[in-house]
Amino acid sequence: MGNKERNPMGLGVLTISSAFLGFFRASPSQPQAPGCPSLLLESESVSLSGLPSQSASRLVGTFQEEGQQDQRKEMQVLDVTEPFRYHEDRTMFHAIVAIKNQTQNQIVRVKVFHESFKTNFLPLNILVLSNYIGHGGFVEVYKCTSVEKVGYEDVPVWLINMVTENPKISHLRQEAPNTIVNGVFLVSKKVVRHPCVYYEVQDETGTMQVVVYGHLTGIPCERGNRIQLICFERGEEQHQLRSSIHSFLKVI
Q1: CB-based burial of residue 45 (10 Å sphere; 0-12 exposed, 13-18 middle, 19+ buried)?
Q2: Rounded to an integer, what distance in angstroms lies between the CA atom of residue 42 and that of residue 47?
Q3: Whole-prediction pTM value?
Q4: Which of 15, 107, 129, 161 yields a CA-CA distance of 20 to 30 A from 26?
Q5: What is the 3-state secondary structure (H, E, C) of the chain?
């Protein structure tokens, strides 16, 4: 496996030589909620049975190019969410892809703002994109983006497992502010303080506060539920995760 390095944003970057089994063949930060200060929650223990137990090491990096990108870019879909509504009648979905470069491949996050592209963004599909946007470390795909499926390839199971592994709270506390976080956590407490909802989540390594606002505050969720978080950010405070306009929360 190639060298794993750290970037200034605190995100892991996986670089793999282009000679390494071909293209993985088998063998911006959004504004935060105003008026939502940190809220100390009194911890309450609940059962942790059935929760994922993987390491928090993340292999997803930041997309370095900014602005409109006209050149064709080949990538393979490793993971994808279902479409969800993030603002009034606007929908989107998130994906994690491996971008194929001449010398190395990089794993990055994609925001897709055109739901019809979901038929192309399926795990293991190889796509070629052009006329997309680089913004805030993400690839952003819109209706005007050209999305072409050019193939399908299996990838090693270990790669999918590492990309989708569940982070440990103890490791999240050590990440840099604004680090993007995906994961499944157990809710041990809930407090409503308009305009925000505060959850305390826990695993066997500790607890963390999750602050949500906007469209996410209306999702029914109570103590003892497990929640899936997509595109949350590590807050300025070590113990806190915060939602943004493109975050997704689901009770599972």
Answers
A1: exposed
A2: 17
A3: 0.78
A4: 129
A5: CCCEEECCCCCEEECEECCCHHHHCCCCCCCCCCCCCCCCCCCCCCCCCCCCCCCCCCCCECCCCCEEECCCEEEEEEEECCCEEEECCEEEEEEEEEEECCCEEEEEEEEECCHHHHHCCCCCEEEEEECEEEECCEEEECCCCEEEEEEECCCCHHHHHHHHCCCCHHHHCCCCCCCEEEEEEEEEEEEEECCEEEEEEEECCEEEEEEEEHHHHHCCCCCCCEEEEEEEEECCCCCEEECCCCCEEEEC
Report the distance separating Cα 131 and Cα 143, nearest Å: 10
pLDDT at residue 182 in the model? 94
Tell me what pLDDT residue 39 has. 61
Q: Kindly list the structural domains of the chain, giving each domain's residue range(s) and its CATH number in brackets, ordered by start.
A: 4-28+59-161 (2.40.50.140), 166-251 (2.40.50.140)
